[in-house]
Fold this sequence. Notes:
Strand content: 25-35%
Order of helices and strands: EEEHEHEHEHEEEEEEHEHEHEHEEH
Mean pLDDT: 89
Radius of gyration: 22 Å
Largest sheet: 7 strands, parallel
Structural class: alpha/beta
Number of strands: 17
Shape: globular
Amino acid sequence: MADINNLIVYCEYEDGKVADVSLELLTKGRTLATRLGVKLEAVVAGDKLEGIETQIFPYGVDTVYKVEDARLYPYTSLPHSSILINLFKEIKPQVCLMGATCIGRDLGPRVSSCLHSGLTADCTSLEIGDHKDVRSGKEYTDLLYQIRPAFGGNIVATIVNPDCRPQMATVREGVMKKEIFDANYKGEVVNLDCDKYVDPASYVVKIIDRHIEKSAVNIKNSPIIVAGGYGVGSKENFDLLFELASTLGGEVGASRAAVDAGFVEHDRQIGQTGVTVRPKLYIACGISGQIQHIAGMQESSIIISINNDPNAPINTIADYVITGNIEDVLPKLIKYYKKNSK
Length: 342
């Protein structure tokens, strides 16, 4: 194959749609590929892929590798990893991105291990930059900066992979923005023969039945989020957050500390180990502002912090700060909004 050393995104595909996280990575991938002066490519493997490229091309994709076979759906580890491993040996991409989903977390380590390349999980930012090895003095240009919180969130680490290829990273859904590059963009479709890339023995595992339970909570797409931290104090106090969210037409979110304390269910967790959100209004109640939580909500349009600690770290990124106890402030807000929303 002619295309060498480009940037490629593994696209997840379910129910006729490319996953949002894959489209977010294509958006970021287009920027990175332009910066590197290379093509943006995508690979999608599954069944009934007819016309799938029309969903992918508008994000600025130059080449779509399609591997269509009934045996590739639903996802199983060995066939999909075999496709990427053998394809990457041919096209030698310099960067590979995939979602930090159940599939990406299974697939990424298998591919990177087999190809002896690096993999950084749960990145919050991806950039292109240079690097100098202090010990050898060797200088590298145009490396992928794989940026993520480390050491319990106390620092933000920038990880580079100077020599091994591809440079691989996974990113959680919602971390990157999803934006169409050009609605009329047209690339090339390359149809690959599945049998050329997958050994028959790889199909030894078959999924007989599959049940996916959709989450009843949809905080990712809510324009207003009322989020609570450990400082809310109790499960009962979280009722105030639910009442305020209901009054405003929003959803309730939480920090990891609040979830670990049993105040609310894990589906509502926002941050590095939860979901990433970009609401128009984010009301943070009793949240101290650890870097893991900040990573999941810092791009909110307006942030209001309600905290009895005037020096809480989250106050530094808040647009408005209300210093006081949740039990005192929230009932007043609820009363005000109920009165003025009629």
